[in-house]
Amino acid sequence: MIPVKIALISKTPKLTFTELSRVATALTMQVQRDVAPIWNVSATVEAVEKNVPPGYWPIFILPELPPSESGFHKTEHYQPYAKVEYGDAWSLSASHELIEMLVDPSASRLVAGPELKASGNIIVENQGKRVEYLLEACDPSQDQKFAYLIEEVIVSDFFTPNYHDPAKSAGTKYSFTGAITQPRQVLPGGYISWFDPAAQKIWQIQYFGKPKQMDLTKAYLHSLKGHLHGSLREFVNGQEKKHRPLSRLRDAKLKRLRDTRCKALETAAKNKTAMYPV
């Protein structure tokens, strides 16, 4: 397997190269330690000063993104790249986009499964109808509540290939952190998108407050006009971005995650020291 090379490039003066490098190191660790064994992918992430080196897929960190602009894009030669809005938790967005680029570089892979329906405050399955889900590994558990830390850097949870299993089975892991506990579960702050081949429609369930089902078909057809290189993921992600950019996670929540980690490390260090009588 040839490893993918990712270039992390800042386009905002607010982001120092030191921080960019620190996040690149954490993202490389996440891919190699956490993502690779589950999804059979390989990549390294490097902080780059300015220009995109040949053979790299870039992730650009920008001062801001329009509310309807997706993080994922493709060039006219169908090479993937991503845009991330700078903020307190920009690394969470970068991790999200990185993982989804690696798991499905085409941004159009579909996986069959039973249709979902938003019913009041819950999401239920319609076993009598089959649809095709867009393979977006981070969307269902994208919220900061389900993120985790690598060396003080906040990164995204992601689902495993078992997420699209026909039914729940004991002992199966559905997302890396364990936040997702059954197939096709969408957690608060997340979303899921699919294509209905029988009705020729594109649907999305967004879980912001309470689950809401959206028919995106007309908007998708409109988006194709004059945009020959747009992918299905690029479109559906743009619909969700209107709600809550992940990069704008409040600093207080980051502090809570880091404080919890520091306390756990402190306790572990004390216990380790106690093993050595002096």
Structural commentary:
The chain is of the alpha/beta class and 278 residues long. The chain has one domain (4-273). Helix content is 27%, strand content 28%. It is built from 5 helices and 12 strands. It has helices at residues 17-39, 90-103, 217-223, 232-240, 251-273; strands at 4-10, 43-48, 56-62, 72-74, 80-85, 110-119, 122-134, 148-150, 153-155, 191-196, 201-208, 210-215. The strands form 3 sheets. It has a 5-stranded mixed sheet with strand order 2-1-3-5-4. It has a 5-stranded antiparallel sheet with strand order 6-7-10-11-12. Helix 1 runs parallel beside helix 2 (90-103). The protein is globular and about 70 Å long.
Please give the number of β-strands.
12
Number of domains: 1
Strand order within the widest beta sheet: 2-1-3-5-4
Determine the strand fraction and express it as a percent band.
25-35%
Distance between the termini: 49 Å
Let me know the average pLDDT: 89
Structural class of the secondary elements?
alpha/beta
Label the overall shape.
globular
Total of DSSP H or I helical runs spanning 4+ residues? 5
SSE succession? EHEEEEHEEEEEEEHHH
**What's the alpha carbon Rg, rounded to whole Å?**
19 Å
Low-confidence parts:
none
Helix content: 25-40%
- What kind of sheet is the major sheet? 5 strands, mixed
Summary, kept brief:
The chain is an alpha/beta fold.
What key phrases describe this protein's structure?
5-stranded antiparallel beta sheet; 5-stranded mixed beta sheet; 278 residues; globular
